[in-house]
């Protein structure tokens, strides 16, 4: 099979498409014929050496969609459409940047869809994270106001769609004024992020918004916290800036009075199968979109990673493995 192998942390040249033996699943594992794999910041962090617990050489990819090729236990029928995500994919064992991958059965989510594989490939991990952030992380309710910091990321676009679906009023940021139109096309109010988002939010909502989803990082988190009302919540989910930690964290000095700070990081088990199926059906019906998708063939994995690293495209990047 063909696969993209990361030899070790470093530049895109460390990613090489090569031939590997077809992997053989043991008990409890399933071989998946991969059709498409979403590209995530997590894989960029792995390539840049920012992730911990990764062994090399490694086929990256924390998610993939395709069909069951072989289940030695006979639980899943060959040809069953499945999404695989998380569970240490692309970290302690090979992931989705390949024509085939083997994964633990418990991380698979079966579904049925006639959408193109590249469209399906953009959905699972982004949907899981957006859904979990808005429900578990923020407990978002109909009629509430939500700020999304990092609104033109794949996750930001998906979170906007889901939040609007829940009946929330959404404000979303981008550092580029040219991308505000994409935010507004998702049904959100666009704000240019010049580092002083809280001031702009409070011009619209003097008491602050009910909730905020932080997708940029800890470098802007204090400003995001200041945009939220007393008893409102900020959920820290993303790190587009690669800033993960808060040095010398002093809660009383760092957190505005009465503003709550939560975090979210999920697994495949956090995305109910019925939620995945529902959104695939609604995407197929044209009732909802999770944002733009840029598709790359497996042979162009280096270009895809370089585009992601340098923010040349927005929305979801997907590898088409066939």
From TrEMBL:
Keyword annotations from UniProtKB, A to Z: NADP
Query: Where does the Enoyl reductase (ER) domain start and stop, copy by copy?
Result: 10-319
Instruction: Give the Gene Ontology MF terms in alphabetical order.
Output: oxidoreductase activity
Gene3D superfamilies, alphabetically?
Medium-chain alcohol dehydrogenases, catalytic domain, NAD(P)-binding Rossmann-like Domain
Record-linked Pfam families: ADH_N, ADH_zinc_N
Q: Identify the SMART domains for this entry.
A: PKS_ER
Fetch the InterPro entries from UniProt: ADH-like_C, ADH-like_N, ER, GroES-like_sf, NAD(P)-bd_dom_sf, Zinc-ADH_QOR/CCCR
Q: Does the keyword Ligase apply?
A: no
The answer to whether the entry has keyword Transmembrane is: no
Query: Mind telling me which PANTHER family this protein's record contains?
Result: QUINONE OXIDOREDUCTASE
Can you say what this protein is called? NADPH:quinone reductase
């Amino acid at each position: 099979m063909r696969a993209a192998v990361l030899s070790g942390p470093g530049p895109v040249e460390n990613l090489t498409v090569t031939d590997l033996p077809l992997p053989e699943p043991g008990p409890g594992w399933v071989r998946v014929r991969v059709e498409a794999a979403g590209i995530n910041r997590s894989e960029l962090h792995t390539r840049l050496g920012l992730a911990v617990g990764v062994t090399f050489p490694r086929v990256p990819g924390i998610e993939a969609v395709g069909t069951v090729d072989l289940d030695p236990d006979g639980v899943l029928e060959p040809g069953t459409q499945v999404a695989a995500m998380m569970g240490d994919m692309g970290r302690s064992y090979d992931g989705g940047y390949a024509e085939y991958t083997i994964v633990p059965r418990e991380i698979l989510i079966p579904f049925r869809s006639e959408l193109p594989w590249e469209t399906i490939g953009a959905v699972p991990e982004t949907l899981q994270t957006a859904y979990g952030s808005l429900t578990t992380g923020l407990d978002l309710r109909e009629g509430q106001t939500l700020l999304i910091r990092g609104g033109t990321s794949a996750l930001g676009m998906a979170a906007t769609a889901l939040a609007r679906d829940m009946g929330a009023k959404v404000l979303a940021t981008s550092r580029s004024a040219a991308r505000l139109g994409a935010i507004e096309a998702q049904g959100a109010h666009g704000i240019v992020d010049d580092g002083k988002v809280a001031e702009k939010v409070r011009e619209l909502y003097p008491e602050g918004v009910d909730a905020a989803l932080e997708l940029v990082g800890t470098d802007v988190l204090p400003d995001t916290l200041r945009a939220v009302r007393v008893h409102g919540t900020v959920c820290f989910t993303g790190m587009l800036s690669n800033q993960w930690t808060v040095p010398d964290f002093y809660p009383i000095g760092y957190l505005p009075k009465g503003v709550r700070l939560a975090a979210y990081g999920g697994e495949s088990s956090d995305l109910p199968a019925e939620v995945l199926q529902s959104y695939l059906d609604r995407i197929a019906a044209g009732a909802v979109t999770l944002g733009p998708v840029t598709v790359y063939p497996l042979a162009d994995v280096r270009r895809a990673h370089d585009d992601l690293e340098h923010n040349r495209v927005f929305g979801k990047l997907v590898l088409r493995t066939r």
